[in-house]
Write a structure and sequence with these properties.
One of its GO terms (molecular function) is haloalkane dehalogenase activity. About 30% of the residues lie in helices and about 25% in strands. With about 130 residues, it is of the alpha/beta class.
Length: about 130
């Protein structure tokens, strides 16, 4: 088992509806999953301290929203940068990764009130 501070973080990308979404992942896949959603404007990098502290007990996944961090940034004429659409992208992300049970950790009021809450209510009604 890893000790706090020595977590091995994996950097990955996944295609979601034609957009390359970057994410960080660490911890045992059979542990409870924490989905870490960054605030605006920020990226999944903000969660590095949590990765170091929690990866020995939890499966951590932190995506960058499209247009943020290391995810692709399609022009606004090709991508709808609304909270509803970002919630759809994150929902598709969780489905594609096979995340059926997870705890959401959201940063900032914008994330909590916008994409994170939409994702939560969408997931509850759809699954």
């Amino acid at each position: 088992m890893t000790q706090p501070g020595d977590a091995q973080v994996h950097y990955r990308t996944i295609d979601i509806d034609g957009v390359s979404v970057f994410y960080r992942e660490a911890g045992p896949k059979n542990a409870p999953t924490l989905l870490l959603l960054h605030g605006f404007p920020s990226s999944s990098r903000m969660f590095n301290p949590l990765f170091q502290r929690l990866a020995n007990r939890y499966h951590l996944i932190a995506p960058d929203y499209p247009g943020f961090g290391n995810s692709a940034a399609p022009p606004p004429t090709q991508f709808d940068y609304t909270f509803d659409h970002l919630a759809q992208v994150v929902d598709a992300f969780t489905v594609k990764l096979g995340l059926s049970h997870y705890v959401m950790f959201m940063q900032t009021m914008a994330a909590r009130s916008a994409s994170g809450w939409r994702l939560r209510t969408r997931s509850v009604s759809m699954r």
